[in-house]
Amino acid sequence: MLLASPKLITTPFGFVEADISYSSLQKNSMDLYIPHQLDFSAIVSDQVESPLSESSEARKHIPVILFIHGGSFVAGDRKEYPYAQIGEAFQQRGIICAVMSYRLMKDSVWPAQPRDVARAVRWLKENIGEYGGDSEKIFVVGHSAGGHLAALISTDSTYLNEAGLSLTDISGTVAIGAMMSDGGSLSALTPSDEHRLFHSDWFFKIFGSKQNFINSLPLRHVNPFMPRMLILLADSELNDPPKEQTVKEFIALAQRCRSDVQYQILENRTHMGTVERMANPSDPAIQSIVAFISTR
Q1: Which of 160, 153, 87 shows the shortest CA–CA distance to 122?
Q2: Cis omega (within 30 of 0) on the bond before 63?
Q3: Are 71 and 78 in contact (CB under 8 A)?
Q4: Exposure of 178 in the CB half-sphere (CA atoms within 13 A)
Q5: Within a domain: residue 60?
Q6: Which residues of 22-110 form beta strands (DSSP E)?
Q7: How many domains does the chain have?
């Protein structure tokens, strides 16, 4: 499969294949961080297909992370700090990391965002073998809104199904600093309050309707077929909003379905501090994710 205007960049820990289009839609691009273990002797300056020769004996089937940035669904991009650094951190740990951009809700209505993530998974499934990655070991990792998207496409099969995939195509999911439900925010509202909320509140109105918002909640889609999951929260973001409450509700439902969900609190962290410190390959969050990926 031809890549759309990729750029090859050398890093201290390997190579980056930048600006890969995982679909033809706006902002549907990713940067692929590939570790040094692989043999890149086949690279030539004008090559637009795989940087690995088909005959390379050094090709390895190593795990792949798809990283999704946060930004309340309305902001953020893979080129912003610290997302490139996170790609390098996983690269340094010997893992291929695809850092993706997706359409934001200021320009594209819901559910364009989870559909974009599913398209990125499909691209990795179809192409990552050419880079030495294992298409059977694709892990979806996201922070904040990105964590929400990671959890949603790993529970609601709609988006992967639309892309010709299923929940079994994801080996595992890591949701960092994300809400798993609305935390009860809608339960006490009158119909008039709901109407006002979804037409005037900057966050709720981007979903278009109450039903769209409800369908966006990972808690609504817990099932026995979801991939195993690791949820990480900073110790300073547990209660306002009530993230820990939503995580515990999610875990309780998952246990009824006999699904594997692990939960870890990151000490001395803030919501944004968690993702910023992940630029360090020795960071505890990075270590937890690497350990999760290594566990089968």
Answers
A1: 160
A2: no
A3: no
A4: 32
A5: yes
A6: 29-35, 62-68, 96-100
A7: 1
Q: Residue 96 domain-assigned?
A: yes
pLDDT of residue 296: 67
10 Å CB burial of residue 134 (0-12, 13-18, 19+) is: middle
* Structural domain harbouring 120: 7-181+217-294
Whether 283 maps to a domain, the answer reads: yes
| CA nearest neighbour of 180 among 226, 239, 246 | 246
Residue 272 has which token pair? 């944004």
Q: How far is CA 79 from CA 23, 61, 123, 175, in A?
A: 18, 27, 19, 20
Q: Which of 66, 33, 62 is nearest to 134 (CA)?
A: 62
Model pLDDT, residue 209: 86
**DSSP type of residue 24:** S
Residue with tokens 């515990």: 248
pLDDT over threshold 60, residue 242? yes
Q: What is the dihedral of CA 105, 103, 122, 164, to 10 degrees?
A: 50
What pLDDT digit, counting tens, does each position of 104-118 carry?
Answer: 998 898 999 999 999
What would the mean pLDDT of 191-210 be, rounded to a whole number? Answer: 86
* Cα distance between residue 221 and residue 238, in whole Å: 22
- b or e along 8-19 (b: 16 or more beta carbons within 10 Å of the residue's beta carbon)? beebebbbbbbb
Looking at the domain assignment, is residue 205 inside a domain?
no
Contact criterion met (CB below 8 Å) for 242 and 187: no
Q: What is the CATH number of the domain that holds 234?
A: 3.40.50.1820
Instruction: Enter the tokens of residue 161.
Output: 């199904």
Contact 120, 49 (CB under 8 A): no
Q: What is the helix (H) or strand (E) element at residue 135, kind and residue range?
A: strand 133-143
DSSP 207-252: G-SHHHHHHT-GGGG--TTSPEEEEEEETTSSSSS-HHHHHHHHHH
